[in-house]
Design goal:
The chain has 285 residues and is of the alpha/beta class. It has 11 helices and 8 strands.
């Protein structure tokens, strides 16, 4: 599945992140727990060399729990990096304390250098980065407890930079979501599109729904059957034949009993994104 993405403000955002990096001690990168690697921007990795990173696996309530644990183990095994999981639908009152503990650990060497220079109790400044629609603002709002950063359910809500002081020890800089100009791997394009990181207008939803059915058929057959009233024999069919049967079951038909592919594709994608099909992760470490 080909995804064409023409970012308008990405170069400006890249410059903004580059300029502000010298002011921060660490970076908090929000990723989608359903696609932890595909939702990590390689441009951000290039920009934040030598900065400690906390990876936040957001939307973990939509992801496969067992695979999320594999991802946590993987990220936590890497140098200068720690990872936590996060569910934006539940207010986590311990989140700030958890973050501060990790940041204190990751910045211990830098704070010791400052102490030797006579700088005591310096505020830890962090930058929050991530691709569009991954939940950066929702994450920050959960920490602050107020609408400190605008949130939305479509890419590109956060347009400018916002410094947010949490307490005497910690400040956050919220930044706009940034995608990279070209997806060399079409699987990454599919994962980003199907999870909503890319505007629905720039990819073929019918192809996306077919790819999703194929993935579920191979990796989550029980969830696919349960949600769409299919049986084990149906799984021997092609993804297109499965889509046809799902469309019939859901009444997505045009005059003459022809399949309404546009309607059923939108339903399947919407139900995947909303978690109605089940807890699904699209990639493993």
């Amino acid at each position: 599945m080909q995804v064409q993405w023409f970012p308008g403000h990405m170069a400006k955002t890249r410059r903004l992140i580059q300029e502000q990096l010298k002011l921060v001690d660490a970076v908090i990168e929000i990723v989608d727990a359903r696609i932890p690697q595909s939702s990590r921007n390689p441009l951000i990795d290039e920009l934040i060399i030598n900065k400690p990173i906390i990876i936040v696996l957001n939307k973990e309530d939509l992801a496969d729990e067992k695979i999320t644990e594999l991802w946590l183990h993987y990220f936590n095994s890497l140098n200068n990096m720690k990872a936590i999981k996060f569910n934006a639908t539940i207010l986590n009152r311990n989140l700030l304390a958890q973050l501060k503990e990790i940041l204190m650990y990751l910045t211990a060497e830098k704070r010791e250098q400052r102490r030797k220079k006579g700088i005591k109790n310096a505020t830890i400044r962090t930058m929050v980065v991530g691709i569009p629609n991954v939940g950066k603002s929702t994450f920050i709002n959960n920490i602050v407890g107020i609408k400190a950063a605008r949130t939305g359910n479509m890419p590109g809500v956060t347009r400018g930079k916002q410094w947010i002081r949490l307490d005497k020890d910690l400040e956050l800089l919220d930044t706009p979501g940034i995608l990279w100009p070209k997806f060399d791997d079409e699987n990454i394009g599919f994962r980003l599109a199907i999870t909503g990181a890319i505007n629905d207008e720039v990819f073929n939803q019918e192809e996306g729904a077919l790819e999703l059915i194929k993935f579920l058929q191979e990796n989550y057959p029980a969830l696919l059957c349960q949600r769409y009233k299919l049986n084990a024999d149906d799984l021997q069919n092609t993804p297109l034949e499965l889509m046809d049967k799902i469309a019939v079951n859901r009444g997505c038909l045009l005059p003459g009993k022809n399949i309404d592919y546009e309607k059923i594709s939108k339903i399947i994608i919407k139900e995947f994104r909303g978690g109605q099909i089940g807890r699904i992760t699209l990639e493993k470490p």
